[in-house]
């Protein structure tokens, strides 16, 4: 079990434990070592007596870093020692732990031997040792910055091997071969840490944090560009190059998943400079400072970018010193040259066009007297190459404790192109309004000229179809006369819609407050549409409880609104469907009427299109239907003239429900 003479003498000592690689593991071995096939081979009676006196099953119960110490000897191959305080009943016990590597016949590390000795054999030394140990632990544990005691011997050996293989750029090698992190992390073990480190990482306790740090990294989540192992790799590279102390900053993650920015100071333990196997590391959370620095840096970058790249000219007027400063961009904008300049304040207004100078001054004084601290003025400045130039001046006012203006600053932006564009838009708008007015007036005046010939066509075609002056020689003539009459009716409906919309746009529709029975008006509209509905076997029903409903509105417009809605309902409802009119009650302060159908319906996004003039939706579904696309638009405009509103609920394949709302004030008591 023990390979050499030195280790054989250790095994014979009174207080010894040996761990060997024997292909199995003991239940006393923690999970992190089970993958290495470790097993407790032998414990001496003296060692068992120590454990019994301390009432523990193993030293790991009183030393969180015990297994890490064993692992560091296993991987580094060098003897390690440490002092430990434990309690035996009511008395403190001081132990020295020495861990020796055991070598196999082939020369490899096959296990370790642990010797536990009483570090205070005499009572007179116990108090001194107690004080020294407590002082050492208090300094370590009470240090306000997170501190770790680490053994990097194994990692050093990995780097030495890489150096022999010709690799000198360690960070680059790790990025290209992230698998080497397993060997590096396995060779850098945290032996102990203080409570401040536990708090920094928000860990449950020391043991959990030590096991977390000593865990092999998960390569599936390692990002070689921004991975959390970059700090560790950089430290290794710097020590490998000969440095004995390194301070680096970077992001890490706490136990609860919070990102923290850490300042890590790592130093080689005195006496280990040649082989830098033991290091002391402090970790400080400087996330708040980092965020403030980032905010300041971004603000500075934004400011510099704004000043360098902005087209605005900056100015500053110190009223106390009567000095006016203009940036280089402002000087270029107003024609003062290429460089910034400072001048007396009275000269600063010279760039304003003489025709606008007094008006600009009066406008600024009104703002200042009104207490404004931020405002903008637009005015014309001196012409450039014979062309007018306009600027917008954005002004910030600084006042003293008495409220008097002490300083003003701002920016000047040339807006000549915008002003020119606005003038062009204004002229185009006026021209379009004139053209639209002329169009509307033309259509309104053409009402008689368009309807007269259509009425003649309607009358003569109906006369011919009815054979009022004798039978026709051929039945086809009668059929043709009916087609002519139907086409003329359709054309007249289109012309009426167009002329109505033209009148609405020309403001020629005058709303009269007729007092009429709305129920009777609804009945007449339903009867008027019944013949057209009957041709498609469509049933039109009226569900209004009131027998009479006196309404003050334009009766002709009211009927036109209902006829348009009923016409659409019949037009877009398939044979055998249903159309209905309901309502006649007050809902939320409005008199409501609703016209519904079981027709083809519309998609929600098509409703707005249907309400626009000439808007026709679902051309693929409605290809068999005819119309101007003005029906719903006219209804919306007409009800708007009555201070009412219209809403549409529709679903494809299920139908449409149109709700009309008239102000309750139009309802009269009879």
In words, what does this structure look like?
By secondary structure, the chain is of the alpha+beta class. Helix 17 (475-505) packs across helix 21 (631-641) and helix 19 packs antiparallel against helix 21 (631-641). It is elongated and about 135 Å long. The model is unreliable at 1-37, 224-228 and 619-625 (pLDDT under 50).
In short:
With 670 residues, the chain is an alpha+beta fold. Helices cover 42% and strands 27% of the residues.
Chain-wise SSE layout:
Blueprint lengths: L4 H7 L4 E6 L9 H4 L3 E6 L1 H10 L11 H11 L3 E9 L2 E13 L5 E10 L4 H19 L4 E6 L1 H12 L5 H7 L3 H7 L2 E5 L1 H6 L5 H8 L16 H11 L4 E9 L5 E10 L9 E8 L1 H23 L3 E6 L4 E4 L1 H7 L6 E4 L9 H16 L4 E11 L2 E13 L5 E10 L1 H30 L1 H19 L9 H31 L8 E4 H17 L4 E5 L6 E4 L1 H17 L6 E10 L2 E8 L6 H7 L20 H11 L3 E7 L3 E9 L3 E2 L2
Parallel strand pairs: 18-20
Antiparallel strand pairs: 1-2, 1-5, 3-4, 4-5, 6-7, 6-10, 8-9, 9-10, 11-12, 11-16, 12-13, 14-15, 15-16, 17-19, 19-24, 20-21, 21-23, 22-23
Helix pairs in contact: 6-8, 15-17, 16-17, 17-21, 18-19, 19-21
């Amino acid at each position: 079990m023990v390979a050499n003479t030195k280790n054989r003498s250790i095994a014979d000592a009174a207080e010894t434990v040996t761990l060997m690689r024997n292909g199995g593991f003991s239940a006393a071995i923690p999970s992190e070592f089970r993958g290495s096939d470790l097993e407790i081979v032998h414990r001496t009676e003296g060692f068992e007596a120590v454990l019994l006196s301390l009432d523990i099953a193993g030293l790991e119960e009183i030393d969180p870093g015990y297994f890490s110490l064993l692992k560091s000897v296993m991987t580094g191959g060098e003897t390690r020692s440490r002092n430990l305080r434990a309690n035996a009943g009511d008395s403190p016990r001081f132990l020295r732990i020495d861990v020796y590597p055991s070598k196999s016949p082939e020369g490899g590390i096959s296990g370790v031997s642990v010797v536990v000795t009483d570090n205070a054999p005499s009572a007179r030394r116990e108090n001194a040792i107690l004080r020294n140990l407590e002082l050492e632990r208090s300094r370590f544990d009470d240090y306000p910055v997170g501190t770790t005691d680490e053994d990097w011997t194994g990692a050093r050996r990995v780097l030495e091997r890489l150096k022999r293989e010709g690799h000198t750029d360690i960070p680059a090698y790790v990025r290209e071969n992230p698998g080497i992190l397993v060997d590096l992390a396995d060779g850098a073990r945290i032996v102990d840490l203080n409570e401040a480190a536990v708090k920094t990482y928000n860990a449950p306790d020391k043991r959990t944090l030590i096991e977390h740090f000593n865990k092999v990294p998960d390569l599936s989540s390692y990002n070689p560009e921004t991975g959390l192992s970059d700090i560790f790799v950089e430290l290794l590279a710097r020590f490998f190059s000969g440095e004995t102390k390194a301070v680096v900053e970077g992001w890490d993650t706490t136990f609860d998943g919070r990102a923290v920015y850490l300042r890590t100071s790592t130093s080689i333990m005195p006496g280990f400079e040649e082989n830098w196997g033991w290091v002391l590391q402090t970790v400080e959370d400087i996330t708040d400072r980092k965020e403030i620095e980032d905010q300041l840096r971004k603000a500075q970058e934004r400011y510099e970018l704004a000043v360098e790249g902005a087209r605005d000219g900056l100015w500053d007027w110190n009223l106390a010193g009567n000095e006016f400063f203009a940036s280089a961009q402002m000087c270029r904008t107003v024609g003062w040259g290429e460089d910034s300049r400072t001048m007396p304040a009275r000269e600063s207004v010279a760039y304003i066009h003489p025709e606008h100078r007094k008006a600009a001054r009066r406008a600024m004084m009104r703002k200042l007297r009104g207490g404004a601290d931020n405002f903008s003025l637009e005015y014309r400045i001196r012409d450039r190459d014979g062309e007018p130039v306009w600027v917008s001046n954005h002004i910030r006012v600084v006042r003293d404790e008495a409220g008097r203006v002490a300083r003003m600053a701002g920016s000047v932006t040339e807006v000549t192109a915008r002003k020119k564009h606005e003038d062009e838009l204004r002229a185009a708008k006026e021209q379009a309004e004139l053209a639209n007015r002329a169009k509307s007036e033309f259509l309104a005046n053409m009402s008689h000229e368009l309807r007269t010939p259509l009425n003649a066509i309607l009358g003569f075609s109906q006369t011919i179809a009815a054979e009022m002056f004798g039978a026709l020689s051929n039945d086809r003539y009668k059929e043709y006369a009916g087609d002519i009459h139907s086409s003329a009716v359709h054309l007249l409906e289109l012309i009426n819609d167009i002329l109505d919309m033209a009148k609405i746009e020309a403001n020629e529709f005058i709303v009269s407050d007729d007092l009429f029975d709305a129920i009777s008006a609804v009945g007449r509209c339903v009867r008027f549409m019944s013949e057209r509905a009957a041709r498609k076997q469509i049933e039109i029903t009226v569900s209004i409880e009131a027998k009479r409903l006196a309404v003050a509105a334009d009766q002709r417009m009211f009927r036109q609104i209902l006829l348009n809605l009923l016409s659409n309902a019949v037009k877009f409802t398939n044979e055998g469907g249903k159309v209905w009119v309901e309502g006649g009650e007050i809902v939320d302060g409005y008199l409501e009427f609703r016209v519904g159908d079981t027709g083809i319906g519309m998609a929600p996004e098509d409703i707005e299109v249907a309400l626009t003039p000439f808007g026709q939706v679902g051309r693929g579904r409605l290809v068999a239907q005819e119309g101007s696309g003005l029906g719903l638009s006219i209804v919306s405009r007409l009800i708007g003239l009555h201070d009412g509103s219209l809403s549409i609920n529709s679903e494809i394949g299920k139908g449409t429900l149109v709700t009309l709302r008239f102000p309750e004030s139009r309802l009269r008591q009879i």
